[in-house]
Write a structure and sequence with these properties.
Number of domains: 1
Strand content: 5-15%
Helix content: 25-40%
Oligomer: single chain
Distance between the termini: 39 Å
Order of helices and strands: HEEEHEHH
Number of strands: 4
Length: about 160
């Protein structure tokens, strides 16, 4: 008998879990506030929401739990406080302590600034591997740098 006879209709579930949502809009349009409000409405509180802040705008939002992200891999200050962290450092922590922390909805504000950090990270990494000093992502041969930046960001997000 054909497996096609066993298909069941899809039953949508109202959940934010497992989704990657991207928002694009003018500066100060309210993208971060919208994302925070959406998550708070869905989860009922601020507790499961974490803002990875590459900009300081979060400081105007009362009640939000935010980590200042100042580099792509690890921040210069490696102390255990939350002064500032690197993106990979935060992802490592989220994975290592996933059973102990409440976060279910993570907002990256902004992906554009995170991309700038990733460009610097990839330029240095590829320069070390190639034995060269890349000062710009376009210096990496064959346009590969842009692909590497995108892949590295999504590799971390998908972890």
């Amino acid at each position: 008998m054909s497996f096609l006879k066993h298909l069941e209709p899809n039953k949508p579930v109202a959940s934010l879990d497992g989704y990657f949502i991207s928002m694009l809009g003018k500066s100060k349009f309210g993208k971060t506030t919208f994302a925070l409000d959406l998550a708070k409405e869905h989860y009922g509180s601020w507790d499961p929401i974490l803002l990875l802040a590459t900009e300081i705008g979060y400081k105007t939002i009362s009640g939000v739990k935010a980590i200042p992200v100042t580099d792509f891999d690890y921040a210069e200050d490696s102390s255990s406080n939350v002064e500032s962290k690197g993106f990979i450092e935060v992802i490592d922590e989220l994975i290592e302590y996933k059973d102990e922390i409440p976060f279910r909805f993570i907002i990256i504000d902004t992906i554009t600034a995170l991309e700038r950090y990733a460009i610097s990270f990839i330029s240095k990494r590829e320069g070390r591997q190639d034995g060269k000093r890349y000062t710009d992502i376009s210096d990496i041969p064959w346009g590969k740098g842009y692909t590497l930046v995108s892949e590295e960001i999504y590799k971390q997000i998908d972890r």
